[in-house]
Amino acid sequence: MDDVQLLRYSRHILLDEIGVEGQQRLLASHALVIGAGGLGSPVALYLGTAGVGRITIVDHDRVDLTNLQRQIAHNLARVGTPKASSAQASIAAINPDVQVLPLIERADAARLDALVRDADVVLDCSDNFATRQAVNAACVAHRKPLVSGAAIGFDGQISVYDTRLPDAPCYACLFPPEATYEEVRCATMGVFAPLVGIIGTVQAAEALKLLAGIGMSLAGRLQMLDARTMEWNEVRLSRQPQCSVCAASRAAPASG
User: What is the C-alpha to C-alpha distance for residues 44 and 29, in angstroms, rounded to an integer?
Assistant: First the structure.
């Protein structure tokens, strides 16, 4: 780190758990962010301000006026522009040293496989089960930690799925891909604006801990927030031996 970086990241460096070595690990890391909306906005901004060296942001959508109630990486001047590019501009305005790659696309399974292989941590900030399942499958295949968040109405949830750990479940252990789920969208259900900020910020914190090698992650724990009462509840998760996604992969060597 040069003198400017030592000053910029001084409040991290002062933390015994991070220090110079931890900050250098962040600077050398690559985070993959799926979605640049309500969750992806605080995720991208905090990863950028914290100095994660490379951030790839994947989102096919464009900024809409209805997004601005909660998607803090965007502004009125960027309505109609791609969300991934808007998030890149917001990060650059705070920390131009971070390399941000905006991908304006809806990543399918094959594309996600390639993107996840190159990442150190993956943050799922998407809003549909199909994408979440595809992201999880790629993370399991390459044994990359997945930080997954969701928020709708006043209810949010957050967990880490890290199959590098022997007893940790994957996302499909909790939500089997063969099951049927009712999709709920902000456009029809609504969402409390600060809720996505809370969940997204926790996602960023979990990712930074994983990258810096500090603390204990949420692997094996699902935290759920009711923002009406601001009450958190935690459920312990266990690996499912018959999981259709991670059971077979645990016996095979990691790819990539």
Answer: 14
